[in-house]
Amino acid sequence: MPKRKICVVVTARPSYSRIKSALKAIQEHPELELQLVIAGSALLDRYGNAVDFIEKDGFTIAAKVFMVLEGENPTTMAKTTGIGVMELTNVFYNLQPDAVVTIADRFETIATSIAAAYQNIPLVHIQGGEVTGSIDEKVRHANTKLSDLHLVSSDDARARVIKLGENPEKVINTGCPSIDLVKEICAEETLNFDPIEKYGGVGEELNWKDGYAVVMQHPVTTEYQKSREHITETLEAINKLNYPVFWFWPNVDAGSDGTSNGIRTFREMVKPKSIHFFKNMEPLDFLRLLKHSSALIGNSSAGIRECSYLGLPVVNIGNRQNRRLRGKNVRDVSPQRDEIYDAMKEVINYNKFPVSKIYGNGEAGKKIAEILASSELSFSKTINY
Amino acid sequence: MPKRKICVVVTARPSYSRIKSALKAIQEHPELELQLVIAGSALLDRYGNAVDFIEKDGFTIAAKVFMVLEGENPTTMAKTTGIGVMELTNVFYNLQPDAVVTIADRFETIATSIAAAYQNIPLVHIQGGEVTGSIDEKVRHANTKLSDLHLVSSDDARARVIKLGENPEKVINTGCPSIDLVKEICAEETLNFDPIEKYGGVGEELNWKDGYAVVMQHPVTTEYQKSREHITETLEAINKLNYPVFWFWPNVDAGSDGTSNGIRTFREMVKPKSIHFFKNMEPLDFLRLLKHSSALIGNSSAGIRECSYLGLPVVNIGNRQNRRLRGKNVRDVSPQRDEIYDAMKEVINYNKFPVSKIYGNGEAGKKIAEILASSELSFSKTINY
Amino acid sequence: MPKRKICVVVTARPSYSRIKSALKAIQEHPELELQLVIAGSALLDRYGNAVDFIEKDGFTIAAKVFMVLEGENPTTMAKTTGIGVMELTNVFYNLQPDAVVTIADRFETIATSIAAAYQNIPLVHIQGGEVTGSIDEKVRHANTKLSDLHLVSSDDARARVIKLGENPEKVINTGCPSIDLVKEICAEETLNFDPIEKYGGVGEELNWKDGYAVVMQHPVTTEYQKSREHITETLEAINKLNYPVFWFWPNVDAGSDGTSNGIRTFREMVKPKSIHFFKNMEPLDFLRLLKHSSALIGNSSAGIRECSYLGLPVVNIGNRQNRRLRGKNVRDVSPQRDEIYDAMKEVINYNKFPVSKIYGNGEAGKKIAEILASSELSFSKTINY
Amino acid sequence: MPKRKICVVVTARPSYSRIKSALKAIQEHPELELQLVIAGSALLDRYGNAVDFIEKDGFTIAAKVFMVLEGENPTTMAKTTGIGVMELTNVFYNLQPDAVVTIADRFETIATSIAAAYQNIPLVHIQGGEVTGSIDEKVRHANTKLSDLHLVSSDDARARVIKLGENPEKVINTGCPSIDLVKEICAEETLNFDPIEKYGGVGEELNWKDGYAVVMQHPVTTEYQKSREHITETLEAINKLNYPVFWFWPNVDAGSDGTSNGIRTFREMVKPKSIHFFKNMEPLDFLRLLKHSSALIGNSSAGIRECSYLGLPVVNIGNRQNRRLRGKNVRDVSPQRDEIYDAMKEVINYNKFPVSKIYGNGEAGKKIAEILASSELSFSKTINY
């Protein structure tokens, strides 16, 4: 019997980390053949070209798709998606997969969904059913409505996808594959690398060994003009706290230029003493850095997902993660420097929280592969009510 | 105060007919400015270029967008959508509308939705919340999840959109604007034109004055290879019945070539005696033709919508209209020649059914314009559960 | 030593016939690997899908590229080219050929040229250096300026490419591969198939065995609105002559709709008695049909090229072939019914002309493969003056 | 009589400066209407968004076209061009210009040419007929073959365009509009602004008042992997010379990342003491900076054109400007640190050269407008031999 060909489209470096355990499980499954497509910002040096990581991890890339139009504004975001639909349609037409996997809710993931659904290829959506703010919210649920099989990350998400009219048999809580990675490094007692030595970056040489926090703040696309304002509030709060901080550059969403410019200007004008900047880090190292930190600050979904399992205190700024299911480790604040400062000051002295399994128990990748191998694949459905 | 700019995108001739009363009401509303975009197959002679109709009806076209890639298969359907996203993004970027209106569920309508939603333009969806088979089903609900305001055609549809997690205040049953046109011609006692004289067409010179039926059968996209088989069943049934029939060519969906080829081959081999073929007809004339006919056969949504108000008997073939809300006038059959034949034989002798207002009372256009002028427009939302 | 990978892009059915002997020679060459890309109208049923022919001829298709935007006007012609650049760039990026071959001067061939040249892939142009009217003229010479190696069809063409500033060592007269096919069937004494029996078509059952002519008339793109007018002149002339004629539908250039509509209308109004229409024919059969005909009428380049070797009288209408090198068998007329009629009346009684080798001796394919295998490939050049 | 609509497409900031005097002359001409399209990197902050300059200069922008695909490699360069063809076709379709102007030889300028030529719009090419290395060489001459009217910058260029088979009446030496700007500032005795105060930038606070040089070095696209190597040679030479230098970041060509990364790395590792970096400068200020400098180093075409009129010594590195016509002020060196160092050391002590008018006398803009207003516009041509 021929293996089922499973085409997974990864459009950004962080998505790769999140799906990696599932990719591995698919690759190793005797009844599955992995067709890995790398697209969008995952190919671009500016956002941390993921290709090197991926090949080092032992994967073969079936196709690469350049599709990011420059401009970093809502208009180029939309056009990028249009280009993605054209290109990915071609890719699927040539690869002839038995199923296509689209991941989560980045704006360009709907290109994967359309290219598959319109060509009558069974579409599998990972991480549907969650709730956030901004354009992601629309994209995620539209992906759900275009998809035939839903592998969600929590019971909460499963209930929501079913409410959206999907057949309950087609909605399965596998847990989130991002937790699989966390589990891998969870037992390590100390940080086993020197971040600055290994990753360079720019900014101050921190004395991080006695404690540090991590910052990761992305622009919020429906408010992209406010990106610069928001980032400045966070910068001011962090600078005032004067506590060692490793800061990661934002992703490719519209407005990242506002965020980036905000950071650049602040650096030149204020010359903050306690911040070191990284462009990106190998996924496992990033998790290690989190595990051994005092807190995560910003609006990264890592604060919601990975940190729940880590029990790491999180200061979650603004409405980007909105109503996404969260553990007790998350403290929400608005993008105001005082609120951020006060929250940070408190949480960096917290103990770790207990492990929460709301996003799975670290076996998601294997479950996903198993379901892809065994479940019935179809491309036609009707709403359940 | 500046008028609200309402950009309506029409991508197919039939969509134009359906939205016409709303376009007129928007154009005439003192607080609204209409920006009419004509795209896709609505521009193509092969499918009945709508531009002439539209300008004759007194509308100015703000932009024309060629976007249909040749091939008429799922691959070109997907790529057409990608081109549409690119092009419509540009159009909206230049027109700067206050709201964009996307209509129903044709595959390319999601291009309108993405181009607007990603650029943070409030998106209004007309005819959401219905249920059918095939790719339309996925597209329609994905459009709902990308839209901010839902102007639906029935109470049934309204309930479904709300179940999909939309804010009830943003879901309004205006009735379907297609019924507005029906109401216009509903009082006419006789057919006031000779179809063959006025529209030419090819095939037999029918003796239609003592009774005729109308056929309109589109390919079903998730089964596009079966299009030819299905159309042949219908052709055989109709040929056997030997009752005068006006037959309309299919639209531009993938597979229409199967349907078209099926018709062409049948004509050449069998030379049916009772069928006359039209490419298209002015919307009101089409409704007149329906009103004075004995029955509509095929899978057109006109059978479900317009014919409910007309009370015209309908033989609805196959699963294209699937679970769409229907009146008592509709009889569902599977795509088998015997079933079709038997149903037709019966219904052509029926009396008309009473007027049903399940799709509105013929005032939808005005209600739509009024809501567009007065309701709060936003582009950010979160699922309701 | 690895084989040189030669990627040939065929964008239209007629181009396939013309290049076929070269494809075969490349495929059979021990040092070459053929990567055959089929794109544009060569994939479309409307224009005679070439894929079946090609696979039957023993070629494997490396990639298919749908790129023809519907509309058949100058705007969609330009956009089609843009889509072609995007898609073919992807194709070359994935195939990684050592050289790309672009053929002649159809509008979309410049997409092949740009996709190769911009990616620093050595570009080989076949059939450069000729002279015609319309947009082809601009496209052909632009292709020359983007190309690195020029395999031309005549001494006249070679001289012209050199005058255009190309290095004489990179300009080689191989003869035209289309003549290779002619040579193959040249010795056949009679037409070895019944065209109507084998190819169907529509129109009259002609009594062609005592003599017939062939008509092939394409729209002239810089005058696309005149297409309908021109075709009508030809139709009137041919109808008046009342001599059996096999007529081929036009290709996909802008304006073919004018041409097609002209033909359709004429058929319905005038019901010409002596014309039978074909959509397309296998290349060799088409040449056979020509060989055994009395004359070719229209503006096809086959009249200039293939017919020179056949010695077939040609009535060449209008300026589409303009100043292309021609043999004594060609008689030029303007698109006026009387001129066409008079010329046809005369030439159908001519004897055949002697074989002319101005376009080669029938060994072009082999020469092309040999040069592709042995010549130095580069992608950088500077004008020669 | 309606004004002639002249659509000029500017795809990069430097092209804007060069064409500015012509834009002004077109705008002010009583028989012309300017339709200014800003596209490509001219819209992007990363490369110095030109929109602000342009609007401050009093121009209205008729359309903006985002078309630059991220990646900065030959593949994205080609795709960017494809997107450009699609988008610009739309723009011209809507603007309906009487003529389109394409400028020089950047890779994406062929998109303008195709979009115009294929839609039968008379195409005017500015700065044709010159000779350089790299992909520009192919693009420039392909632009010539697609164009109908050639407004060249030198007698040398005019002769070359005619040799390319163009009708001599359609080839006019207007001089280069870039010289018009030079003439404007040519009489100023001293630098009337402080570059660092006015433009910020990064790097050392130079003591530039006693003499400084300017550096501008772009990647060479056919050797894009060597960009980093080349830039490092220049950086080493300049660092060794230890003479104050204002350095401008490279443009958006493929490989600029190599160049940019080379600069960034050098700055961090070597911390050069005599270099100050700018992203961009208002065109007139840039010319002022040149005029009062000791020399220009790099491979910018400004060294060839503007500096000829200024009589400024130029060290021209590598083959990017190749065989472009140059004055006595230009000294060519290969991209080797010693050669660059030696040449620089010498030329910074040179006196200025006398004004050379090989690229015009500073009246090009007016001549261009006059020709556009008075010459016959056509879109059909045939090669002259």
Describe the structure.
The structure is a homotetramer of 385-residue chains. The first copy, chain A, is an alpha/beta fold. Chain A folds into two domains: 4-180 and 360-374, Glycogen Phosphorylase B (Rossmann fold); 187-347, Glycogen Phosphorylase B (Rossmann fold). The first copy, chain A, is 40% helix and 16% strand. Chain A is built from 14 helices and 14 strands. In chain A, strand 10, helix 10 and strand 11 (275-278) form a beta-alpha-beta unit. Chain A is globular. At the A-B interface, helix 3, helix 4 and helix 5 of A face helix 3, helix 4 and helix 5 of B.
What brief labels describe this structure?
homotetramer, 385 residues, alpha/beta, Rossmann fold, 2 domains, 16% strand
Q: What structural category arises from helix and sheet content of chain A? A: alpha/beta
Relevant CATH superfamily of the largest domain in chain A = Glycogen Phosphorylase B
Multimer state:
homotetramer
Query: What gap, in angstroms, lies between the N and C termini of chain A?
Result: 37 Å
Main interface pair?
A-B, 52 and 53 residues
What is the domain tally of chain A?
2
- Radius of gyration of CA atoms of chain A, rounded to a whole number: 20 Å
CATH class categorisation of the largest domain in chain A: Alpha Beta
Mean pLDDT across the residues of chain A is 92
The fold-level CATH name of the largest domain in chain A is Rossmann fold
Q: What is the total tally of β strands of chain A?
A: 14
Apparent shape of chain A? globular
Order of helices and strands of chain A: EHEHEHEHEHEHEHHEEHEHEHEHEEHH
